[in-house]
Design brief:
This protein is an alpha/beta fold. Strands 1-2-4-3-6-7-10-11 form an eight-stranded mixed beta sheet, sandwiched between helices.
């Protein structure tokens, strides 16, 4: 494998396999903002050109997930396309899944999306924007300079856990959906508009947000439009499914993610053959 550091127009890594690569994959982390090197390496070992990027919090970028231009990901697709791959896919987790699904709606070059622990709606900003402010809430994303419709957060929600330890914020998202129910329709991700193959991976014990109900809504929306979306789920898994070759996710001092090391690994293992099939352009099926 050859690993190339990227510095312009954003930080990242591009990893090419030793053999001819037909598939290029953009790997997007969630709200950690990290460059997913290990996951990209796993994909490169499977014969794919894999790239991961820092899409916020880097030089010249918004410090938080606030009005991030979807063109950021389109430019990454440009780079993948320039490597000569024939199939371009996006793999995102959590907020990265939100970005991947939305990018596939707006960029017809995207052939496949793997959305792990996804949402079915656009949410408000997580962290400050370029102006350093977190309030009032703004959309996480823009397209052609215009903010996408979004669901804000109900700040009257309080966590059940002690404030001096990690908290489960799933209830915050669930309450916010109820509080701002009139905004849900406009904020829904129009997943029926993407021509990409769609694979969703979600755990029923997700403590970050209700990714399994979100994924089920995405499947319903696709099917109502005569399209397909495949869902791989496990009731005991949490927010961070782990793929074969990845160790357990590290604990956070701030958030509870649900699941456990065994359940999260089982979900990743169950999803893995379906992920590879989608990335390689083969038929996949739900389980």
């Amino acid at each position: 494998m050859d690993e190339q550091e990227l510095t312009e127009p954003w930080e990242g890594v591009l990893i090419t396999p030793g053999s001819v690569s037909h598939t290029g994959v953009l790997v997007l982390a969630g709200s950690s903002g990290r460059i997913e090197r290990d996951r990209a390496r796993i994909l490169a070992r499977e014969g794919m050109t894999a790239m991961s990027m820092r899409w916020f919090g880097g030089p010249g970028q918004s410090p938080g997930i606030c009005e991030i231009p979807l063109e950021t990901f389109v430019s990454a697709v440009d780079l993948l396309e320039s490597t000569g791959v024939r199939r371009i896919c996006l793999m995102g987790s959590s907020k990265g899944a939100e970005a991947a699904l939305l990018t596939s709606v707006h960029d017809p070059r995207v052939d496949g999306v793997v959305a792990m622990s996804p949402t079915s709606v656009v949410w408000g900003n997580v962290g400050p924007g370029r102006d350093g402010r977190q309030r009032p809430y703004r959309s996480s994303w823009t397209w052609k300079g215009q903010p996408l419709p979004f669901v804000p957060y109900d700040d009257d929600w309080t966590a059940a856990e002690p404030v001096n330890g990690p908290v489960a914020v799933r209830g915050w998202y669930e309450r916010s959906e109820r509080t701002f129910a009139d905004l849900l329709l406009a904020a829904e991700i129009p997943v029926e508009d993407t021509n990409a193959d769609v694979l969703l991976v979600a755990g029923g014990d997700d403590a970050m947000w209700p990714s399994l109900p979100f994924a089920e809504r995405l499947v319903v929306r696709r099917r109502a439009a005569g399209r397909t979306a495949h869902l791989i789920s496990r009731a005991e898994a949490g927010h961070r499914p782990r793929l074969p070759g990845e160790g357990p996710a590290s604990a956070s001092p701030h958030f509870l993610y649900g699941g456990d090391a065994v359940a999260d690994a089982e979900l990743g293992a169950a999803a893995w053959p379906h992920i590879l099939n989608l990335l390689r352009g083969r038929k996949t099926a739900a389980s």
